[in-house]
Amino acid sequence: VILLSLLFQTSIRGDTVLVTLYAMDLEATSLSLGLVVASTALFPMFFASYAGRLSDRTGYRMPIAIGMLGTGAALLIPFLFHGSLIALIAAQLLFGLFQIFTIVSIQNLVGAYSTEDSRSKSFAAYTLAISVANLIGPLLTGFAIDHLGYSVTFLILAAFSVIPAVFFLKLAMPVLAEKKSGMKAEQKGGFTELLMQPSLRKTFITSGIILTGVGLYEFYFPIYGKTLGLSASVIGIII
Q: At what angle do helices 85-112 and 2-25 cross, to 10 degrees?
């Protein structure tokens, strides 16, 4: 599960670098650049809570596989409609929608494979895999852009999403189909209800500030690097 997550996250981490540089190559305005990157977060903002409930009700296999296949399909849109900024925005909207189902379900799956004693170790291993993907994604994307072009790079990142999906569909792991039957069938409320809990509210606010900073850096630095005349490979190395 961790190795397949690493492959998928490599695609996720490479996407921001790729779409930012590609939008600049299409001579997008500053507003258009912001729309391209922000569109990735639109659907996760509304559906992250629902994605968690879905994996509780249906098991892990289908949300993970559908999320990965959908993410791969989204990355194929700029490959098929090369040179279209509208197609790029549409691709990022779908990319954000599908990826959240996979990310939430995989985190649930890591927890399902863990006991109370091993949970911290399991999530530490998962986090290390994400860190490796954070290294490989921008690095691979930068070199691929310089040597193969934007269209082929979209195709490569799509493959990094689709290949793990095939494995998840084929893996004979009983826990993949597990439903959390012990939970109440009718869970009500969502993010707003969770936000009312003081301890969780502090966690959400802190995470929001940190992720905003990280997101701004990942969005802004490729633009800044491009204005300095840096190649995509160098930008990928620095990120």
A: 160
